[in-house]
Amino acid sequence: MMLIKTRIGPSRIQGIGLFADQDIKKGTPVWKFTPGFDLRFTEEQLRRLPPRARRYVIRYGWKSDKSHLLCFALDDGKYFNHSDNPNTLSRYYDDEEEVVTKAIRDIRKGEEITDNYRSFESTFRKPKNYK
């Protein structure tokens, strides 16, 4: 669940991006997997989805290195774009069910919020269409 004010819009990186709608200080939690709001799918649950829904969840979800389930943000958190030089970092904490994303530097209002997907999804491979 997003913990800060954001908006979505066209991204220079790829498709839709997530943008800060407020100034964010380094160290601020910006997103957190929230059980009961965000979703997790087993492979069997994913197979039972209609094809269009399954493609959507796979495109915007991630395979958790902690639970090994496919996770899906129900809010605009699904629009974080990958960057090799991100302004946030997602990581797993012992006292959290899944990832928590924090700002790793100050982020200005209007700036695209990015994350390095490799920090929480070891199987991530950067698509060729990413800038």
UniProtKB/TrEMBL annotation:
PROSITE patterns, alphabetized: SET
Membrane-spanning intervals of the chain: none
Domain (SET): residue spans on this chain: 4-118
SMART domains linked to this entry: SET
Pfam families: SET (PF00856)
Single GO MF annotation: histone H3K37 methyltransferase activity
UniProt-listed InterPro entries: SET7_MeTrfase, SET_dom, SET_dom_sf
Protein name: Nuclear protein SET
Organism: Candidatus Micrarchaeum acidiphilum ARMAN-2
Lineage, top ranks: Archaea, Candidatus Micrarchaeota, Candidatus Micrarchaeia, Candidatus Micrarchaeales, Candidatus Micrarchaeaceae
